[in-house]
Specification:
Blueprint (H helix, E strand, L loop, with lengths): L8 E2 L1 E3 L2 E3 L6 E6 L2 E10 L3 H18 L4 H17 L1 H12 L3 H20 L7 E4 L5 E8 L3 E5 L7 H12 L3 E5 L5 H14 L6 E3 L4 H10 L5 E5 L2 H11 L5 E5 L5 E4 L5 H13 L11 E5 H17 L18 H17 L2 E4 L3 E2 L9 E2 L2 E4 L16 E7 L2 H9 L3 E2 L1 E5 L3 H10 L4 E4 L15 E2 L9 H8 L1 E8 L13
Parallel strand pairs: 1-5, 8-9, 8-11, 9-10, 11-12, 13-14, 13-21, 14-19, 18-19, 21-22
Antiparallel strand pairs: 2-3, 4-5, 6-7, 7-24, 15-18, 16-17, 20-23
Length: 500
């Protein structure tokens, strides 16, 4: 007689040990493509768990900050090597818990690999400046210094890449970490912490807490011994995080929403533009902060573009991301699916023309998942809510425009400023667009997604608060500058006074 096997319960990682939550509670992590599949049980962290993790990180910081950066880099390099070895396993687990197609999950793990290798290299390049002093027999320089315990709250759509964007620059800079991943995708963060541990990260340097925002995320952001908070998620939650950080003047990096646009000019390569709009709009089921949820098309090619774009959207195969033939997976959970459905109704009521989709997929292979049909609205106006607000699902609005100038006005006329794209063969127009689009990222003849780890990532307006992820920009956030003056004149010298 067969007996049921108890599901594995994944614990918190605090001070180098996997431990139960003080709450004694756990929650289910289920496959969004098939909710019958239980990926695992994860403990629900509470404020007491946060306190323990912060205490461990604070104590570990005393020694970790003094480890030479090249030695810290060796641990990161070994971590990247382990990620390479386990890429396929981690990608499959990611698809099971997040839903994105396997090729995209592999890309997510690869981004973590790239970021980890990159930051390992920075262990020998944490450069400061040396400069001549205005006074004789005086030396002047600046150096980077670590800050302390860094609280990190990460989203579910890139469950390994985004934690790596935050963790690796913080670690190479000599900080310690308390990571709270999204409750929908904790397994990928678990894998990342596991390989860091195997690579030799000392006890307490990296701590992992699973659980929800109110139970675990909020106590991290408010904790008096956490001087640095890095958050990626919605603008609404980012505002709450900022308010929590303000009383103690914490360093606070916010990477939030986007309402990104592809501008298609009359001289564009339409085949390429349609490829880009499909990938930008429906890649990751539209669940990217950089998703191309708006396409502004010049009226002279609007009819042809829309016809072909809709045909392509209709033909996309939706299904389980582990199936190699699947092109688009499910929404992450029922709440997100309901959000998508509500915005589709808003679009209909606003008078947008529903060209394809607009319905949940719930029969046959879709019966046990949170699937939604690729959806396109046409003849939209720039001020419609579906063209202004972030939907975070497989919904694209198409807007007709008369000119590049109008396209730029439409592009900039939203509360966000993350990513934008233009398709044109006119180099003058391309350069004008790169200058006038008020976003953190601009693409020419490519969609709004595809950022690389060695360049800054982030946006303007309500997308962020001025900081950037990735590249050297991330190290700028996770370090403080210290300016050092060494006077070897053996007398009092007064800057700005004795140099007159």
């Amino acid at each position: 007689m067969a007996t049921a096997v108890a599901p594995r319960v994944f614990k918190n990682f605090i001070n180098g040990e996997w431990v139960e939550s003080r709450s004694g509670k756990a929650y289910e992590n289920r496959n969004p493509a098939n909710t019958d599949e239980l990926v695992g049980m994860f403990v629900s962290s509470a404020e007491e768990d946060v306190d323990a993790a912060v205490d461990a990180a604070k104590e570990a910081y005393k020694k970790w900050r003094l480890v030479p950066a090249p030695k810290r880099a060796e641990i990161l390099f070994r971590t990247a090597e382990l990620l390479v070895q386990r890429k396929e396993q981690f990608a499959k687990d990611m698809t099971r818990e997040m839903g994105k197609v396997l090729a995209e999950a592999r890309g997510d793990v690869q981004e973590a690999i790239d970021m980890t290798y990159y930051m390992a290299g920075e262990g020998r390049r944490l450069f400061g400046q040396t400069t001549p002093s205005e006074l004789p027999n005086k030396f002047a320089m600046s150096v980077r210094q670590s800050i302390g315990v860094c609280g990190m709250i990460t989203p579910w759509n890139f469950p390994m890449a985004i934690p790596s964007w935050k963790m690796m620059p913080a670690l190479i800079s000599g900080n310690t970490i308390v990571l709270k991943p999204a409750e929908d995708t904790p397994l990928s963060a678990y894998h990342l912490v596991q390989v860091l541990t195997e690579a030799g990260i000392p006890r307490g340097v990296v701590n992992l807490l699973s659980g929800d925002g109110p139970g675990a995320g909020a106590p991290v952001s408010k904790h008096k011994d956490v001087p640095v908070i890095s958050f990626t998620g919605s603008t609404a939650v980012g505002r709450i995080i900022a308010m929590a950080c303000a009383p103690d003047f914490k360093h606070c990096s916010l990477e939030m929403g986007g309402k990104n646009i592809i501008i298609v000019m009359e001289d564009a390569n339409l085949d390429l533009a349609i490829d880009g709009a499909i990938w930008g709009g429906f890649g990751t089921t539209g669940q990217r902060c950089t998703a191309a949820s708006r396409v502004a098309v010049h009226k002279s090619v609007y009819k042809e573009f829309v016809s072909r774009f809709v045909d392509r959207a209709k033909s996309l195969k939706v299904g389980d991301g582990l199936d190699p033939s699947t092109e688009m997976g499910p929404c992450i959970n029922e709440q997100q699916l309901n959000t998508v459905m509500s915005y589709v109704e808003i679009g209909k009521n606003e008078g947008a023309k529903l060209l394809t989709g607009g319905n949940r997929l719930e029969s046959g292979p879709y019966a046990k998942g949170w699937f939604y049909a690729p959806t396109v609205f046409g003849d939209c106006t720039p001020n419609m809510r579906i063209a202004q607000e972030e939907i975070f699902g497989p919904v694209v609005t198409v807007i007709p425009i008369d000119s590049l100038e109008q396209g730029l006005d439409v592009a900039n006329g939203v509360p966000y400023g993350l990513s934008a794209s233009i398709y044109t063969r006119n180099v003058n127009r391309a350069f004008q667009a790169t200058r006038d689009l008020y976003t953190g990222i601009v693409y020419v003849n490519a969609p709004t997604i595809g950022a690389e780890t060695h360049l800054p990532f982030g946006g303007t307006k309500q997308t962020g608060n001025g900081h950037r992820e990735a590249a050297i920009a991330a190290i700028d956030f996770f370090t403080e500058w210290k300016t050092i003056y060494i006077d070897y004149s053996d007398k009092l010298q007064r800057a700005q006074i004795d140099n007159a």
